[in-house]
Amino acid sequence: MNFLKKGLDKVKEKRSQADLEKKINEATVNQTGYASISLLNEISSRTDDTEECKFISKYCIKLLGLKPKLWKRILRSLALIEHILKTGSQNFVDQIKDERDRIKDLFEFKYEEDEKDRGEPSKLFYLLIYINFMCFHS
């Protein structure tokens, strides 16, 4: 009986992660603009669960390592991280602190397309400064 319960729990966890991944992908789609506050809040509220929090933080950090031509998605990922730092669990802050080197690497981020800087450096710089302050000075 325990075997069946564990199996059912695993299926529920996978389904939950698939739903969460879909929501994160929706929030970080490679388009200009930002995700809705309700979507960001929904993702943020799920950081109260330890396993989901780990999944969210690892997935967000993974998105920061995308190719520079996906700069809109990287910027939206940073915006999602910023929102969760403001409204999510302390556990998320702690997990993001562990990734400080990957976040700091983005200070050197640059991407040009059609001879224009497409990294939106002022927004990127603001988000990085904020995340750096929240994670490393708290």
Our count of domains comes out at 1
Low-confidence stretches: none
Number of strands: 2
Kindly provide the radius of gyration, computed on alpha-carbon positions and rounded to a whole number of angstroms.
16 Å
> How does CATH name the architecture?
Alpha Horseshoe
Helix segment tally: 7
In the CATH scheme, the class would be: Mainly Alpha
The gist of it:
This protein is mostly helical. The chain has helices at 2-27, 37-45, 50-64, 71-87, 90-97, 100-105, 121-136, and strands at 112-113, 116-117.
Walkthrough of the structure:
By secondary structure, this protein is mainly α. It has one domain (2-136): Serine Threonine Protein Phosphatase 5, Tetratricopeptide repeat (Alpha Horseshoe), CATH 1.25.40.90. The protein is built from 7 helices and 2 strands, in the order H-H-H-H-H-H-E-E-H. It has helices spanning 2-27, 37-45, 50-64, 71-87, 90-97, 100-105, 121-136, and strands at residues 112-113, 116-117. It has a two-stranded antiparallel ribbon. Strand 1 and strand 2 form a beta hairpin. Helix 1 (2-27) packs parallel to helix 3, helix 3 (50-64) packs antiparallel against helix 4 (71-87) and helix 3 (50-64) crosses helix 5. The longest helix is centred in the N-terminal third of the chain and has 26 residues, at 2-27. The radius of gyration is 16 Å and the shape is globular. The mean pLDDT is 81.
Key features?
about 140 residues; mainly alpha; Serine Threonine Protein Phosphatase 5, Tetratricopeptide repeat; two-stranded antiparallel ribbon; 7 helices; about 70% helix; about 5% strand
